[in-house]
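Milestone 3.1: sequence recovery, worked example.
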């Protein structure tokens, strides 16, 4: 009897072990493709969209090739902000003789990857020069440091608040001691070409040790003892009596005031339990990542999938305080605004800043609207706030500024996708008003890249309105004055805005915008069978080529005609007819992919004119999915798999994103490709539909947010899924019924259900063509 009981207990124990919840954070590898980081790319000790994004910086100058670079194994500081055109509050612990006044370059320390740990919400790194173990974590707005100093040596922490960091110089900085273990201050980040106005970053810091000495420096020289350091090219330090104990330090930031920096700390981190914050951060990341659960596939595929998903929830930043305050820099001077509060006085949503949504119709718009609708809602609300504040729906706001990064009005597709999928927690009337303003002369479309002039003309909207296209040679001081790209993107954005007009009952607007959405045809040249730019006189530009050399060919933004000739996501049937029908179109497009295969479907950043297909940059992100629209979905299934593996499959520090991971866009694309879900039109249609390719996992389960969607979850089940062979869809069932279309409606997704897909090594050329 006892023997049977032991066997029973053993079985129970084994079953219990098998039922231990899988941790999705364990699959995230922050080091993927970090050999060539951008400043906002790497944020290890960060919460989702964290205002604080704390991590080691191995290089501190430049927006590109800066921040954490895997092969640059010297830490210069730990800074708290890694964002679009924003940086701030670098600190560095040192031991022994104090040299912080000489600058970050003088006090840098080597480290070894072998002893380094990085995971969502936590980073550990050993500073070999000083014998210091540094551990980092954070809440949304507070960085939490834990330093273990070597015994018997003096311990210092330097605040390099006035030193050049990332995007530009610091205009001035101030640090002062305000208690036995507290300091506070600010850095005034100098303006940049993209973020033209200087922006304050306030900070409040508290240590769990008594400050034995406080001091500072300016222009590389130590200052006389003082309680306040204020000026340029300056910084401050604290000397600590460590008493053989680890030093803990909390650093809260705010873009509005010192008072709010302290409030952020008091609200989010009133205790000193470092391990608890690490666990809390992991729990928050686990909740976000587990919204999409995958089973099957190789371990490397799961690692890349959850790292991609992590990136999609990481790069863009909250900029409002715990009380809802945020800084509006759209006017002549900073103004403190507040987001709406609920009945308990809590912010209804956080205010966000972000790089442009250029290209996000094929990445973030689709992913967020499926699994994170509340985030999409908050971004819409933030943009409506900026319209109230400054009179324009933004294109890539930073530090409360308009930056006018890139071209067009990509917010239009973002709003259309959100609203037409039922994400509507913002003032749609104000949003529509602002989007309509942007679609005409003097709106945001009229501003070419970074065109901050009072009367902008670089976007060429007067020509678009009068001629139906933007010619080359438009006057204006902005960048990216590429008329063909502008024409194509404006036409798509007109269609997106028309979808909003339709559902809002604005029929006259709808008819006008739908007519304008056909403007892409005005640059179609039947002779060259391509989108061909025109000059100011209305003539085709001479010496036209499909691809070229360097950054872009004339007329095309970071791209060429070979790629932008397929940028008609709203009217693929019309475009395919211009190319001569399905057979002619797919033969030509398939040839592009064959030509691009040798270069892994990418080109080096800055050489976008040189590739037939370029998955390193946004304008090409839909190309593998276009075969489905030309009656050959099996070719989309093949090329999507090929691009996913070849271009985005690497999980080493030397590949995986290919240099231009714009705040999670390529991560989001990788997630969609892995799930076998896409939307060529960005999901903006009144009747939004998802397109199906072959998933790489046996099962994908997407949790649905019941504040937006009535269903529990939507599952994608795959039968016979061998990565090396089973690429093609043989058959499919949706909620138990045979499904012979390559797309299905969002309405069925929203109520929850099951898509079952059977794969095979051989294409079924009859499936999905209805």
């Amino acid at each position: 009897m006892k023997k049977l009981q032991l066997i029973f207990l053993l079985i129970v124990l084994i079953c219990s072990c098998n039922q231990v919840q899988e941790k999705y954070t364990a699959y995230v590898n922050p080091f993927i493709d970090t050999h060539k980081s951008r400043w906002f790319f790497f944020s290890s000790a960060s919460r989702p969209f964290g205002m604080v994004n704390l991590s080691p910086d191995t290089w501190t100058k430049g927006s590109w090739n800066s921040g954490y670079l895997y092969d640059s194994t010297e830490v210069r500081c730990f800074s708290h902000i890694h964002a679009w055109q924003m940086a701030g509050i670098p600190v560095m612990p040192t031991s022994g003789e104090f040299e912080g006044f000489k600058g970050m370059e003088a006090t840098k320390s080597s480290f070894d990857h072998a002893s380094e740990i990085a995971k969502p919400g936590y980073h550990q790194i050993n500073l070999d020069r000083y014998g210091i173990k540094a551990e980092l974590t954070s809440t949304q707005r507070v960085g939490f440091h834990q330093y273990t100093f070597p015994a018997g040596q003096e311990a210092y922490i330097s605040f390099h608040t006035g030193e050049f960091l990332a995007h530009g110089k610091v205009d001035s900085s101030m640090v002062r001691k305000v208690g036995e273990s507290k300091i506070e201050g600010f850095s005034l980040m100098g303006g940049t070409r993209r973020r033209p106005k200087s922006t304050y970053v306030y900070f409040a810091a508290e240590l769990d040790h008594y400050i034995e000495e406080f001091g500072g420096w300016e222009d590389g020289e130590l200052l006389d003892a003082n309680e306040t350091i204020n000026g340029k090219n300056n910084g401050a330090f604290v000397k600590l009596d460590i008493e053989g104990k680890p030093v803990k330090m909390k650093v809260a930031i705010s873009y509005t005031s010192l008072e709010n920096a302290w409030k952020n700390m008091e609200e989010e981190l009133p205790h000193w339990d470092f391990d608890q914050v690490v666990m809390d951060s992991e729990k928050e990341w686990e909740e976000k990542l587990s919204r999409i659960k995958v089973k099957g596939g190789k371990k490397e595929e799961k690692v890349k999938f959850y790292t991609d998903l992590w990136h999609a929830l990481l790069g863009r930043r909250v900029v409002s305080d715990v009380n809802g305050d945020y800084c509006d820099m759209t006017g002549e001077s900073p103004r403190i605004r507040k987001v709406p509060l609920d009945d308990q006085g809590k912010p209804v949503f956080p205010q966000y800043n972000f790089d442009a949504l250029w290209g996000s119709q094929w990445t973030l718009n689709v992913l967020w609207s499926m699994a994170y609708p509340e985030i999409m809602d908050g971004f819409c609300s933030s943009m409506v706030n900026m319209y109230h504040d400054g009179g324009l729906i933004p294109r890539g706001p930073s530090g409360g500024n308009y930056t006018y990064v890139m071209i067009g009005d990509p917010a239009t597709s973002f709003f259309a996708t959100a609203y037409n999928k039922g994400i509507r927690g913002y003032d749609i009337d104000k949003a529509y008003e602002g989007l309509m303003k942007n679609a005409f002369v003097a709106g945001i479309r009229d501003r070419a890249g970074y065109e901050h002039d009072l009367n902008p003309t670089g976007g060429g909207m007067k020509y678009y309105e009068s001629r139906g296209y933007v010619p080359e040679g438009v006057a204006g001081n902005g960048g990216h004055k590429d008329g063909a790209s502008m024409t194509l993107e404006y036409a798509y954005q007109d269609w997106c805005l028309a979808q909003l007009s339709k559902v809002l009952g604005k029929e006259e607007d709808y008819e006008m915008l739908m007519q304008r959405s056909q403007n892409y045809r005005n640059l179609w040249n039947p002779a060259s069978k391509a989108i061909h730019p025109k000059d100011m006189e209305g003539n085709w530009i001479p010496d036209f080529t499909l691809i070229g050399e360097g950054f872009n060919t004339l007329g095309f933004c970071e791209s060429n005609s070979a790629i932008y000739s397929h940028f008609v996501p709203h009217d693929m049937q019309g475009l395919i007819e211009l190319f001569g029908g399905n057979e002619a179109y797919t033969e030509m497009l398939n040839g592009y992919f064959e030509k691009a295969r040798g270069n892994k479907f990418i080109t080096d950043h800055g050489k976008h004119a040189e590739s037939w297909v370029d998955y390193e940059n946004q304008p090409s992100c839909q190309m593998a999915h276009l075969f489905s629209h030309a009656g050959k979905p099996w070719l989309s299934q093949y090329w999507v798999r090929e691009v996913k593996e070849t271009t985005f499959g690497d999980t080493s520090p030397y590949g995986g994103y290919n240099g231009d991971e714009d705040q999670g866009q390529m991560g989001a694309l990788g997630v969609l490709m892995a799930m076998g879900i896409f939307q060529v039109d960005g999901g903006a249609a009144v009747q939004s539909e998802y397109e199906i390719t072959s998933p790489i996992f046996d099962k994908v389960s997407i949790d649905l947010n019941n504040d937006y969607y009535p269903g529990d979850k939507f599952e994608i089940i795959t039968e016979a899924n061998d990565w090396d062979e089973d690429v093609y869809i043989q058959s499919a069932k949706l909620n138990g019924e045979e499904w012979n279309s390559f797309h299905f409606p969002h309405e069925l997704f929203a109520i929850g259900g099951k898509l079952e897909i059977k794969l095979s090594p051989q294409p079924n050329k009859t499936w999905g063509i209805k």
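The longest strand covers residues 86-95. Residues 6-19 have pLDDT under 50 and may be disordered.
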